[in-house]
Write a structure and sequence with these properties.
The structure is a homotrimer. Helices cover about 50% and strands about 10% of the residues of chain A. The first copy, chain A, is an alpha/beta fold and about 375 residues long. Chains A, B, C: This is Amidohydrolase family protein.
Chain lengths: ~375, ~375, ~375
């Protein structure tokens, strides 16, 4: 029993101190937040919550009061009011530094295509977190910038390729949000140049955000030509997406067609389809996945989700991300809850007599850091 | 350790004594039941079980022998024969009083549209359980009564609206079983009056139960105009339904169209799609859900299902129901197993250091009673 | 506490000593295996693993080092190199005898239609395991042998029925891999003789493996006429299948049409759709299922999967199989991990006060042996 406790405490310390690679996050907000603004940022629901409820009454809300409060110098389990008052008193810069410091990431990959003007950019994140930061480029944002800059239908494909080429000079990965704009149930083959021109003509004439399936496929196939790992939003997100059409199993056709070239495909979040993602990571050599925002949203329940992610995927194919956007609480909780869940799940394997402590440490290190260092060529211990 | 036990025992006592709002149940049977009849009522399968098995060999069967037997004055874990002999000796009225008393609900919402002549009605339930009872009206049953009373195709819509208006004078909610009659994959828009008349003509000529998708949609949209919460059967049920078409994610179109008006939509049962339901409750302000009959059917395994229901849904959007129909064992076990599962799951959050005991008590109270009291305007502590 | 330990240790011993009926396995390899060959056989992925990973870094890999190593006379948790060196030193025959002996099955049903020339046949398995072995005949393999032997389109149906009739003289069950060849989303009705002849003409002219949906349906309906239990691959498998189309819920149409005749349908593996399989086993009297290869692939996580399989299915409808093919590690781990998972899950029900120890022993015995003995008429204690 003494030795069991020693083993678990060693595993706990190793995971606690692991410099995570957060392979998919966004910037933290640089603004002080009202209660209403804060509450809107800790849920995927759109708009203010009904007046008979608060988003603090959720796993994520409870996790903030439990784990973030002490980082800000409060007791755990204070009220939302006390928490937000303390947050306001400290000011956003101090809050960001405290929470990003406590997250203990060793490297961030920051996706810059979502409401980028409302959050700090990669260099700001590097300064706040005091660790290296690299960029993940969102394909649809680049295409929409190309469209906004003025381009003809015939010129779209060329200009997009050029813009993407420029952006990836300093990027480590690309990202597709086709799950939001159409669904993952898309024709897996690349469109022809004529189809692209025709679709670009329609889109440029109609305006609005990019939701044409032909163009979304074209973006993906252009991205694949760069050879950079391509991240896909899958699973839960805000109500802009149809969850049924965000099941990563829908990507099978694309996965099969891209297997010969072998460009890494990284499935993000995946919940509640994370077992599906685990199967794809098992079956195809170039498929990877993480649990992303599912960890901070499931809070005290996240250990069960993490356990399911460890069922059939090879351990070299699983990664960590927080998917934090806005409040630094999300970046911190992504890391903190992942560490706690991994300690509980892997520690359970050890105390059940199924794994050795050394295996548990090794797998935690792979998933938390070395898999992503190798995949994104980040250097450092891999 | 002493304090941990104290905390858990306090949580246990609070949950044990909570006067639950059972937001979706049916009447108990008023007849004494043969073994064959009892066995048919503790499974969703149709017809008698094959002679090489008994429905007692299931989680629900084990739960009856474990938890109902002591309520009837027997030791736990006696045989099915002993249990049924005792049940027969006591007689159905005494059994109903004992089990409904032990269920400890503070309020029942009774859905009256399923084989209503075989079970006691709302007033009978109020008398047996000695607590207030309100009605939930099944849309399809009302429509079928209208048809049976003689109506023309052109007159159907008006007569249905009239009949529904009459029924809701004393009802707290409406219920759709479109999952059984068609599937949740239905056109989310309301049909035109001409389409309704045409569909009514076809149905009235053909006879039989209502399964026309145009009319089923019309019932739903008529229901929505009343403003009463609308319950939907989703997930498991008897083999009359196609489980693939009972996934609540299929309701997304309807959910989106009804969000502006905000009429509450309540997803019942949901298993094995309860994580999907949790997502919908998270993403849309007017969506609620419960686990219904999944709790008594999963028995000793229900804590895992309850834990999954607590992953991403805001706690203000989750409710309790037993979905009991027939044997009062189902009403009792719905409550008893829910209490045990909640104590185990929330108690685990507390002993893991993730939640405070106060948070656990508060969330149990919300889910077990106050959310439903607010939603259905039942009065009482909310 | 003393009595709780006594109870669990009794349950542990009973499950440990239970002579399992492995209702779906294949032969073990008779060849010594290189590291590369061994690694390809412990994953469902095709081809060699990328050089930056090893399939040993998985639940299955860890389970081999934990549980198989001691069977070969090594300490648990040695390295893959040490394990494979020991395996090579012992030689394949000794390894097979040791692992099959340690598996402790009392009866094997061996499916002979998959790469049969690479593994030992039923009689070889009977000799190695020193227990009775019966055969499961794969429909598609029989049809492909008929085609290879030379047959006309018009003669195909008759020749297939004849060949199947010959094969089932000594077989206990049939097996369909329509999940691989088409998907479970097939027209549930039998094709007409004219359709079969036409489809056979197309297939015989084109050659290749049997993937025509008309013929696949014809095989199933011919199989059903024999009255033998019909096993279906469902859920995970190698990337040859589209997992979305391997959801057993897709079989509902066929299940409904076959219910009157009542030929047993046995859903294999099912993961991650095992809750769907549990529902089908609950709702339909002639549906059975197992977890097959999901147990050895989920390793230390298999208790959670086993627990989910015990949620809503009647206990008389659940069975055990290893789905081992090739390395005898798979046959052994299927059994060993199932025993450990059942002990943990059922033992948990007992220590939680939900089940009696007698119930736990009885259910383990049903699932591990007696259900299959009855279904396949194997004789022995049932």
């Amino acid at each position: 029993m003494a030795s069991e406790l020693t083993v678990l405490s060693g595993l706990h310390r190793t995971i606690e101190e692991l410099p995570l690679v957060d392979q998919h996050a966004h910037g933290v907000t640089g603004r002080d937040l009202s209660r209403a603004a804060f509450e809107e940022l800790i849920t995927e629901a759109h708009g203010p919550a009904p007046d008979w409820m608060t988003p603090f009454d959720s796993q994520l809300g409870h996790a903030i009061l439990r784990h973030c409060a002490p980082v800000l110098g409060l007791d755990a389990f204070i009220s939302p009011e006390e928490y937000l008052a303390r947050r306001a008193r400290l000011g956003v810069v101090a809050v960001n530094r405290l929470l990003l410091g406590a997250a203990g990431a060793g490297h961030y990959l920051i996706e810059t295509g979502y409401r980028a003007d409302e959050v700090v950019g990669p260099s700001g994140m590097a300064e706040l977190a005091a660790v290296p930061v690299d960029e993940v480029v969102r394909l649809e944002a680049v295409a929409e910038q190309v469209a906004a800059s003025g381009v003809s239908a015939a010129g779209f494909a060329g200009r997009f390729a050029e813009a993407l080429g420029e952006r990836i000079r300093t990027a480590r990965a690309l990202k597709s949000i086709v799950a939001y704009r159409h669904g993952l149930d898309l024709d897996p083959d690349p469109p022809s140049p004529a189809e692209v021109t025709e679709a670009a003509g329609r889109w440029l004439a109609a305006g609005g955000r990019l939701a044409d399936p032909v163009l979304l496929r074209h973006l993906i196939w252009t991205a694949l030509e760069t050879g950079l790992p391509l991240q896909f939003h899958t699973g839960i997100g805000d109500p802009d997406l149809d969850l049924r059409r965000a099941d990563p199993l829908l990507l099978r056709g694309l996965i099969e067609r891209t297997q010969p070239a072998g460009v890494p495909l990284v499935l993000l979040h995946c919940y509640p389809f994370h077992r599906h993602a685990g199967y794809l990571a098992h079956a195809y050599p170039h498929v990877f996945f993480d649990l992303g925002l599912a960890v901070h949203h499931t809070g005290a329940g996240s250990a069960a989700v993490v356990a399911e992610s460890l069922e059939i995927a090879p351990f070299a194919k699983i990664m960590f991300s927080s998917d934090g956007w806005g409040p630094a609480e999300l970046h911190f909780l992504g890391a903190e809850l992942w560490r706690r869940a991994m300690t509980r799940v892997l520690g359970g394997f050890v105390t059940d007599g199924e794994w050795s402590a050394g295996q548990a440490v090794r797998v935690a290190t792979m998933i938390g850091a070395t898999n992503a260092r190798r995949l994104y060529r980040l250097g450092g211990a891999a």
